[in-house]
Write a structure and sequence with these properties.
The complex is a heteropentamer, with 2 copies of chain A (about 230 residues), 2 copies of chain B (about 220 residues) and 1 copy of chain C (about 240 residues). Chain A has about 230 residues and is of the alpha/beta class. Chain A is built from 6 helices and 9 strands. With about 240 residues, chain C is mainly alpha-helical. Chain C is globular and about 75 Å long. The chains are: A alpha/beta (about 230), B mainly alpha (about 220), C mainly alpha (about 240). Chains B and D meet through helix 2, helix 3 and helix 8 of B and helix 2, helix 3 and helix 8 of D. Bound molecules: protoporphyrin IX containing FE, adenosine-5'-triphosphate (2 copies) and magnesium ion (2 copies).
């Protein structure tokens, strides 16, 4: 299906289906996502984008088929190198952004698997354009600020594989641009990025491939119109 | 070492959250106070038998107080799907469990420290047996409640009717522990029998179930 | 399923009929309790059965936990067995409780007493009710895992319950027979016991196999219909 | 008429939600059974005095059971901020309250229907006084519990530690009702005194507090 | 501040401030929103847009200042004619979309205030492009489907004043277009619409006025570039 040159693959899906009762949220999806590329996943509401990302993140298991992440088909082995941003913020409402990040850092640091150190909370907050001195708990953030704090948590662990579910929703234009610059840097550092959005024009500048989903299937996976310089 | 640090990170987070909304602990304290007062309404403490039933009252009150508290332990992990983040983190799941047990143990102990003296005052108790043994029975009993409670609260976490389910699975499994608590407390208060056997049993129960929970927690957390 | 019924039903019915005959007509009337004692021939076998099937449930749950990743097919089978044996435990446990209480009322004058055997039996019943409730309360893929974990807890808890109950309230005189099981049983009563025991055993095993097959079938049709739905939706997509 | 239809709409919705997770009822039944069992572990029912304390035990058990149930009444209105929708709806707020009271009354009654016989069996009770009066005491007592419980659950809804706060407020206000319940039940069971006064007091309590709650609910709901 | 011709005003704010602790989410906002117009509110994350809408909806009360809605300064009197879509769905997860709507309808119908009848649930679901036969509970909807169901609930009561907080977030392009057509119809029926968004290009076709917020203040309230035909 995909015409990716055979580098090592960040994600390989083989006939993966996900059923909820008799409803198929994913239907025999076969695809490969190459290391170091940025994939923008488009599709209607209910097409199965979030389900796909949650599946790759290991939060749900496929009903049928095999899904192997960073070369490992066993769930949970690659946790330290996957970052997942969901619709929900995954942050504690009562803690400030800094406290949330510090706590999260503890769970990822000192891990025998990963040798790379983490970002400092201050750095990563600056990356998403949040003021690190803000002492308001996250529960009192506006919707867009919360979304940015959530992204900061994901970025902090310097994951190899980034799964971003609508990172720009509720985020204002200036901050979206800022976030895009960060993502572009990550892509340059050969991180793999899978990103869903309903604003393709926003994500286009960093897209290597555009992946379109429809009713639980990947109907096309094509190089983006303007692949910036680097060979696909 | 890393493990200890991770447990501490979890625990510190929980304590901070609790501290920030201090009233949880205030609430629990007041709750236990009320229970004592209420029970002395329902069961006349001047009755001759009050010494015999007060062990039961103490532990039933603590049981219900802890169920209310335990139900909330994991609730904060559910909001905004933080639990998904926990499931995805590379740190060992059992560390998360251990920290929750410690936090709950602290809270329930705090209740006891207030409840105990109140109890003594309201019910005019004086241990006829060896009173200092209560210092063994209370922590051991609390640990028994809290270990299983925390585990089953996690188990019922993503089910429908979460709050309903916890007592339903916790109570039957905790019966031996409850029995041991009540019996040893009564034995100490009345001085009629030897609490030693019951205390040893409590200790054994704690060790067995803590091990079991630590081993099985990963499975529970990972279940889709 | 048909085969199980064809073989199991006649055998168990025959055994039970023989047991009924032995219990009601052959066995002598008990001296002190009179005819009411004949409940015993139903009470005892079901109580014994209720103590047997929890082990099946525990073993099956362990198999499930061990193989759920490496061998999902076997794990599914183990889970079906765990469910079947849990339900059977509950049925026999309930029968044991009910017959016991029906017996206790005329003999002891009360429905219930906190005797060690009665209490631990009640605990067993409670634990298995909570096991089945857990299974109903959970949805989707987690049911089996969570239930298996609870089953492990139950298996470890039951002996502890039994021990603690034995130590409990030993001070208080209780209106129960002192001796162990079968202590004072007249030899002429044995045939009725054995026939009924055998009958209920076959009956129970048959029901477990039936329930197991039913559950397997449910798993199977669920999988099958899911696949079919998947294929069908793939068809329309083209 | 419109009012009745709105109450019914609320009630039907709650019942449907409850029905959808059918096992809630099963859970409740099992829960009450557990409570009785636990209590008879904690308080030896073979004691001679058990008839004297059983009135207290029955109501304390019911109180704990209902607090567990009441805590959940409003929780479903909080998720996804449905409560904001309720606050903005033009329908009268008291209708919402009334429907919740009715729903809770149904549930707790259901618990009682199971709990009662179990209690009789396990505690070997036989009323010496006029047993049929229990048919008056039980609903009246339940209503007293439920009216205040529902109201205070709503009151403590948007405070931080929702579940902890409920018993804190509920218990002190319920003390007269609890006293009346316990006393009348004991009077009926032991036949030693006349429960009439206590029953009338329960009835009065119900009327007063239901009126008060209906009047004040709008204020509670509208509070920012 | 505004140059609106003096029709009756749907919303009048006079020096309205909202304080959280010592932080001012709204700072002396004075503005008037005319009946029958569509206002698109723009602004950075944390500018105070959601706070403004919640205040108009009557869910929070101003710390200072007066806010009068549809001619009434008393809170709660105009409930039947205000529709508010928030970041949250305000729906019961366990009920289907239809059941949610039917329930909600009961709370709005037979009301002595409003003589207009409500939309039928089927109609309003069709309006937002959801299949009325879908028997999945709302909790199992995808993010975008949920957002559309939430909008359906708001529309059903045929409110005079519509407060929509980022109605297009997480909604796919086709459905956004569909929703815009509905909003355009409502505007034609002289309903007042206040709508926040971070995708101004989407909302522009129906905007009569563009209102820009910054740090708790309305910094500009201007006729939209292309007011479609009707006089402002
Ligand atoms: C583990 C479960 C149980 C087992 C294995 C069991 C077994 C037995 C046996 C073997 C006897 C005959 C004893 C004899 O004749 O000496 C007996 C008698 C009896 N059982 Fe059970 N039983 C169990 C549970 C119960 C329960 C739950 C009740 C309920 C109330 C009950 C009530 C009775 C009564 C009333 C008698 C007659 C006692 C008498 O002769 O005075 N049993 N049981
Ligand atoms: N737990 C569940 N149970 C049943 N159906 C589900 C569940 N989760 C998702 N679905 C269904 O699966 C389909 C795909 O959902 P998914 O969330 O992946 O869509 P999406 O592409 O992310 O849409 P959106 O752009 O709106 O976020 C939807 O029809 C949804 O209703
Ligand atoms: N309950 C609260 N307590 C304290 N501060 C709050 C509270 N609610 C909102 N705020 C603050 O008020 C400011 C405005 O929030 P608001 O939600 O109105 O922003 P917004 O314009 O809607 O932003 P977004 O586009 O991100 O949704 C933010 O800085 C926010 O942190
Ligand atoms: Mg999605
Ligand atoms: Mg906002």
């Amino acid at each position: 299906m995909s015409s990716v040159v055979n580098t090592t693959h960040a994600v390989q899906l083989h006939e993966v289906s996900k059923l909820y009762g008799s409803f198929a949220a994913l239907r025999k999806v076969t695809a490969e996502f190459a290391v170091g590329k940025c994939y923008v996943i488009l599709g209607q509401n209910g097409a199965g984008k979030s389900t796909l990302l949650r599946l790759i993140a290991g939060l749900i298991r496929p009903s049928f088929g095999i899904c192997s992440i960073l070369g490992s088909a066993e769930a949970g082995t690659m946790r330290h190198s996957i970052g997942y941003l969901s619709h929900a913020s995954m942050l504690y409402d009562e803690l400030t952004a800094m406290e949330n990040l510090r706590y999260s850092a503890r769970l990822y640091e000192d891990n025998s698997h990963s040798t790379t150190s983490l970002w400092q909370p201050e750095q990563v907050l600056a990356m998403v354009g949040l003021d690190a001195r803000l002492d308001r708990p996250v529960g009192k953030f506006s919707q867009g600020m919360r979304q940015r704090a959530a992204l900061a948590r994901v970025l902090m662990a310097k994951p190899e594989l980034l799964l971003l579910d609508e990172p720009f929703s509720n985020v204002d234009l200036a901050s979206s641009a800022q976030m895009l610059r960060v993502l572009a840097e990550l892509r340059a550092a050969r991180k793999t990025i899978l990103l869903t959005t309903h604003q393709p024009e926003l994500a286009r500048p960093i897209a290597d491939f555009i992946c379109t989903m429809h009713e639980g299937q990947i109907v096309s996976l094509e190089p983006a119109q303007s692949p910036e310089g680097r060979s696909a | 070492m890393t493990y200890v640090r991770i447990v501490w990170a979890h625990l510190a987070k929980d304590l901070r959250l609790e501290w920030r909304s201090k009233d949880a602990i205030n609430g629990m304290l007041f709750f236990s106070l009320l229970v004592v007062v209420l029970f002395s309404f329902a069961f006349d403490p001047t009755m001759a038998v009050s010494r015999q039933i007060s062990g039961g009252i103490l532990w039933v009150a603590l049981l219900f107080a802890s169920v209310t508290a335990l139900n909330q332990t994991w609730t904060r992990e559910l909001r905004h799907q933080v639990l998904d983040a926990q499931r995805m983190a590379p740190s060992p799941a059992s560390a998360l469990f251990l920290s929750k047990v410690l936090a709950n143990f602290l809270f329930v102990s705090m209740i006891q420290i207030v409840l105990g003296p109140l109890f003594i005052v309201f019910y005019n108790l004086r241990a006829i047996g060896q009173g200092w043994l209560m210092l063994l029975v209370l922590p051991l009993g609390t640990l028994a409640l809290v270990v299983n409670g925390t585990f089953f609260a996690a188990l019922s976490l993503r089910t429908r009717n979460r709050e309903m389910l916890l007592p339903l699975i916790l109570f039957p499994v905790s019966v031996p522990a409850l029995l041991a608590m009540v019996q040893s407390t009564t034995a100490i208060l009345t001085g009629e029998s030897d609490p030693g056997l019951w205390i040893r049993m409590l200790g054994g129960y704690d060790v067995i179930f803590l091990t079991l929970c630590l081993l099985l927690f990963e499975t529970i957390l990972g279940a889709e | 399923m048909k085969k199980t019924l064809l073989i199991g039903l006649p055998i168990s019915l025959a055994l039970l009929a023989m047991g009924f005959y032995q219990a009601m007509y052959v066995a002598p009337t008990e001296a002190t309790m009179g005819n009411i004692q004949r409940i015993f021939y139903y009470h005892f076998p079901s109580a014994i059965m209720a103590l047997l099937f929890p082990y099946v449930n525990f073993a099956a749950s362990l198999v499930f936990l061990a193989t759920r990743r490496s061998n999902p097919l076997r794990a599914q089978a183990a889970d079906a067995l765990a469910l079947a044996s849990a339900e059977m435990t509950l049925i026999f446990c309930s029968i044991g409780l009910a017959t016991g209480m029906l017996w206790a009322r005329p003999v002891w004058g009360i429905w219930w007493t906190w005797d060690e055997r009665l209490t631990s039996f009640l605990m067993l019943w409670l634990i298995y009710v909570s096991y089945l409730l857990l299974r109903r309360f959970t949805a989707g893929g987690q049911t089996q895992t969570l239930a298996a974990v609870l089953s492990v807890f139950a298996a470890i808890d039951v002996p502890i319950v039994y021990m603690s109950i034995r130590w409990w309230r030993t001070q208080h005189p209780s209106p129960v027979i002192g001796g162990g099981p079968n202590s004072g049983l007249d030899p002429s009563m044995w045939p009725a016991v054995w026939w009924n025991l055998a009958g209920w055993f076959v009956w129970g095993v048959m029901l477990v196999i039936l329930r197991y097959k039913l559950e397997r079938k449910r798993q199977w049709t669920e999988q099958e219909s899911a696949l079919q739905a998947l294929e069908a939706s793939l068809e329309t997509a083209r």
